[in-house]
Specification:
Layout: H1 32-50, E1 56-60, H2 70-85, E2 88-91, H3 96-108, E3 113-118, E4 132-136, H4 139-148, E5 150-155, H5 160-174, E6 182-186, H6 188-204, E7 216-219, H7 222-242, H8 249-257
Parallel strand pairs: 1-2, 1-5, 2-3, 3-4, 5-6, 6-7
Helix pairs in contact: 1-4, 2-3, 2-7
Length: 265
């Protein structure tokens, strides 16, 4: 698999620029027709990039986390482990955990390192560790592309954007708009307060079913995550067969991608 050569070239970008209050997206000036065209163009670009991608793992996490942070280092390590297994890695394509995920996939070499960057009011570069990347204008399309070919998702420490991706993915699974992804939350110290709120307050108020509170799995063990995602591939393919999706191109891609450990699934 061809890899872009970054060698000794120094990749410089301003990751600390903060959006000023008076800066707003250019989307506000679009007519409905222009907005619809932008949405379609984003879909076309994203689907074209994913055309020959089988099973991916989506990685969510903050753009504000630096390379010296434990979550960044673990994201690199996890993505490299999964790439070595043959998984493709998808991220938001920019800095922080997104960069870490792409860096790990880049180093792993057996899967594509995919980035779906986003046009924002301030400049946001694509990190240099993607093997395939596109820049989109619409948050909704970007979120869809991150998980479109995913069989699993791993969320690292993050803010509102990470929570948006995590809850949106969870809602799509529970409403059966997508096939079930294996979802891990890395870092018990960070995620336990949120899951406690879900398992107490939300259940107490009957705003979710009790069994839905177990859709996420918290882990501090990268090996546990690797093994769990690997095992999930067989279950994912079995469900595709039950739903009559075994004649699809994606089913064939996943089977070929993991023929070494799906023979018994």
């Amino acid at each position: 698999m061809a890899r872009k050569i970054i060698g000794f070239v120094t990749f410089i970008y301003d990751r600390k620029r903060i959006m000023k209050k008076e800066e707003y997206s250019g989307d506000l000036k679009k007519t409905y027709k222009q907005a619809a065209k932008s949405f379609k163009d984003d879909c076309d670009k994203g689907f074209a990039l994913l055309e020959d991608i089988g099973a991916a793992v989506a990685v969510f996490g903050s753009a504000r986390i630096g390379a010296d942070n434990m979550h960044y280092k673990k994201a690199v390590q996890m993505a490299e482990m999964l790439s070595e297994e043959g998984f493709h890695i998808t991220s938001g394509g920019s800095y922080g955990i997104m960069e870490a995920a792409n860096k790990g996939a880049f180093q792993g070499k057996n899967g594509e390192s995919l980035g779906f960057n986003l046009v924002l009011p301030f400049e946001q570069d694509t990190n240099p560790f993607t093997t395939r990347a596109v820049t989109l204008e619409n948050f909704a399309v970007r979120k869809n592309m991150l998980i479109k070919n995913a069989v699993a998702a791993v969320a690292f420490a993050g803010g509102f954007g990470t929570m948006d991706e995590l809850f949106d993915t969870t809602t799509l699974i529970l409403t059966r708009k997508i096939l079930p992804l294996k979802i891990y939350l890395f870092g018990s110290e960070f995620w336990t307060p949120l899951t406690n709120f879900i398992k107490t307050t939300l259940i107490e108020y009957k705003t979710i079913d009790a069994e839905d509170a177990d859709i996420w799995q918290i882990s501090d063990d990268l090996e546990e995550i690797r093994v769990g995602i690997k095992k999930h591939v067989g279950k994912y393919l079995e469900l595709m067969r039950r739903l009559g999706l075994d004649k699809s191109k994606r089913y064939a891609l996943i089977k070929k991608q993991f023929e070494n450990f799906t023979k018994q699934e």
